[in-house]
């Protein structure tokens, strides 16, 4: 099921792959990386005149920059290299790359030169790579600030300097790239937290390496390939009983809308029957906008359900706690969100009940809720989002999505996924309720819990992306609007799957012009 997905490796994994390959790699990995970066640069600025500035640092990332500079110069581009270090102190491969660049007639200055009158065609950050763990200060911080001020395209090699490649946290001054060429495989910090704001468009150059052949990947970027096996057409001889009974439990006083949003999302996804159990004693008996929803008092939900979601608008009163305890005791797939997570976070007995469940459990916390589940501050969760999601999944024996920029999905056995769909317009009230409804809808229709969560998260963001392309948002997008869009996107996936065209198409990676001998 995962063969068509895109693997992600933490820095330790990339280092392990490199250690296995470096002794025998011909040409060297640095030579491959520099050439691949040069090819990407040519594609990026093919029609843009002017010189290219490459800022090289004191390590192997700088070595990649030297190789790139030599290749571009040999292809006829004007290149200027800035290098403030001691060439004799470079690592062996980087020192050779520097010497080869100079021997080929390259020039080098010890500080960033002033931009030419017409501006740089491209500025390249080859200062610090994936190993950076401390804030960038001094001369290199000044370089980064100067490079960020350039109006030209800005390209980072492997990871923008100053960005933690594992966590996506900026460490002091951080290069803000319009394009990032990363090597071997994706890294989590490129995809979550602040990473997407600093990386721009990301291109993976595998360097003729198949990473999973050297080290199985625990992480993957989410694509529809991960749930393609579930995208099957319905038989013409269908009835609603085939597509499950979902229920949403929540909607306390003043928060009925949260439960209705979740219910509508499950209904729009094709669930056979959707019940909404409300804790508000004065709650409505019918949703006049969508009378297909069956509204009940929370205590009167049917016993026989295919899947249950609890949390949207639940509240934290004694009645809410009682309903949550009963829900945890049900042996059906369960989605827990919002106040259900807040109640669990402060009650060890509920945590034990959740961890002991045999039916699938799905948790959808935002960072503050994740912090309550782990006994951490929100800032501590955001400092290492990946580890936080992994820890919750293992501790509570549940599937978890840590929502936010680059939502992270983690499984109890330590696997994880990062989703790339969605945009800042989704930072609005009710979006989490819609996600809960999508996931419980998939679960009610019999999808495996892992596929249901991955698909729900990906679909949620893809719906918002579609609306933005159509001019609806991103700013001002409402949760309600994403529900109809999600239905459209999902039906599009089904059509593509039926046509056998639901797979990623490889980018043509052939060089656009000669960059010298390999």
TrEMBL record:
<comment type="similarity">
    <text>In the C-terminal section; belongs to the NnrD/CARKD family.</text>
</comment>
<dbReference type="GO" id="GO:0110051">
    <property type="term" value="P:metabolite repair"/>
</dbReference>
<comment type="subunit">
    <text>Homotetramer.</text>
</comment>
<keyword id="KW-0511">Multifunctional enzyme</keyword>
<dbReference type="GO" id="GO:0052855">
    <property type="term" value="F:ADP-dependent NAD(P)H-hydrate dehydratase activity"/>
</dbReference>
<comment type="similarity">
    <text>Belongs to the NnrE/AIBP family.</text>
</comment>
<dbReference type="Pfam" id="PF03853">
    <property type="entry name" value="YjeF_N"/>
</dbReference>
<feature type="domain" description="YjeF N-terminal">
    <location>
        <begin position="14"/>
        <end position="215"/>
    </location>
</feature>
<dbReference type="InterPro" id="IPR036652">
    <property type="entry name" value="YjeF_N_dom_sf"/>
</dbReference>
<keyword id="KW-0547">Nucleotide-binding</keyword>
<feature type="binding site">
    <location>
        <position position="61"/>
    </location>
    <ligand>
        <name>K(+)</name>
    </ligand>
</feature>
<keyword id="KW-0067">ATP-binding</keyword>
<feature type="binding site">
    <location>
        <begin position="129"/>
        <end position="135"/>
    </location>
    <ligand>
        <name>(6S)-NADPHX</name>
    </ligand>
</feature>
<feature type="binding site">
    <location>
        <position position="140"/>
    </location>
    <ligand>
        <name>(6S)-NADPHX</name>
    </ligand>
</feature>
<dbReference type="Pfam" id="PF01256">
    <property type="entry name" value="Carb_kinase"/>
</dbReference>
<keyword id="KW-0456">Lyase</keyword>
<dbReference type="GO" id="GO:0052856">
    <property type="term" value="F:NAD(P)HX epimerase activity"/>
</dbReference>
<keyword id="KW-0520">NAD</keyword>
<dbReference type="InterPro" id="IPR004443">
    <property type="entry name" value="YjeF_N_dom"/>
</dbReference>
<keyword id="KW-0630">Potassium</keyword>
<dbReference type="GO" id="GO:0046872">
    <property type="term" value="F:metal ion binding"/>
</dbReference>
<feature type="binding site">
    <location>
        <position position="433"/>
    </location>
    <ligand>
        <name>(6S)-NADPHX</name>
    </ligand>
</feature>
<feature type="domain" description="YjeF C-terminal">
    <location>
        <begin position="223"/>
        <end position="493"/>
    </location>
</feature>
<dbReference type="InterPro" id="IPR030677">
    <property type="entry name" value="Nnr"/>
</dbReference>
<keyword id="KW-0413">Isomerase</keyword>
<feature type="binding site">
    <location>
        <position position="258"/>
    </location>
    <ligand>
        <name>(6S)-NADPHX</name>
    </ligand>
</feature>
<keyword id="KW-0479">Metal-binding</keyword>
<comment type="function">
    <text>Catalyzes the epimerization of the S- and R-forms of NAD(P)HX, a damaged form of NAD(P)H that is a result of enzymatic or heat-dependent hydration. This is a prerequisite for the S-specific NAD(P)H-hydrate dehydratase to allow the repair of both epimers of NAD(P)HX.</text>
</comment>
<keyword id="KW-0521">NADP</keyword>
<dbReference type="GO" id="GO:0005524">
    <property type="term" value="F:ATP binding"/>
</dbReference>
<feature type="binding site">
    <location>
        <begin position="60"/>
        <end position="64"/>
    </location>
    <ligand>
        <name>(6S)-NADPHX</name>
    </ligand>
</feature>
<feature type="binding site">
    <location>
        <position position="366"/>
    </location>
    <ligand>
        <name>(6S)-NADPHX</name>
    </ligand>
</feature>
<feature type="binding site">
    <location>
        <position position="125"/>
    </location>
    <ligand>
        <name>K(+)</name>
    </ligand>
</feature>
<feature type="binding site">
    <location>
        <position position="158"/>
    </location>
    <ligand>
        <name>(6S)-NADPHX</name>
    </ligand>
</feature>
<comment type="function">
    <text>Catalyzes the dehydration of the S-form of NAD(P)HX at the expense of ADP, which is converted to AMP. Together with NAD(P)HX epimerase, which catalyzes the epimerization of the S- and R-forms, the enzyme allows the repair of both epimers of NAD(P)HX, a damaged form of NAD(P)H that is a result of enzymatic or heat-dependent hydration.</text>
</comment>
<feature type="binding site">
    <location>
        <position position="432"/>
    </location>
    <ligand>
        <name>AMP</name>
    </ligand>
</feature>
<feature type="binding site">
    <location>
        <position position="161"/>
    </location>
    <ligand>
        <name>K(+)</name>
    </ligand>
</feature>
<protein>
    <recommendedName>
        <fullName>Bifunctional NAD(P)H-hydrate repair enzyme</fullName>
        <ecNumber>4.2.1.136</ecNumber>
        <ecNumber>5.1.99.6</ecNumber>
    </recommendedName>
</protein>
<feature type="binding site">
    <location>
        <begin position="403"/>
        <end position="407"/>
    </location>
    <ligand>
        <name>AMP</name>
    </ligand>
</feature>
<feature type="binding site">
    <location>
        <position position="313"/>
    </location>
    <ligand>
        <name>(6S)-NADPHX</name>
    </ligand>
</feature>
<dbReference type="InterPro" id="IPR017953">
    <property type="entry name" value="Carbohydrate_kinase_pred_CS"/>
</dbReference>
<dbReference type="GO" id="GO:0046496">
    <property type="term" value="P:nicotinamide nucleotide metabolic process"/>
</dbReference>
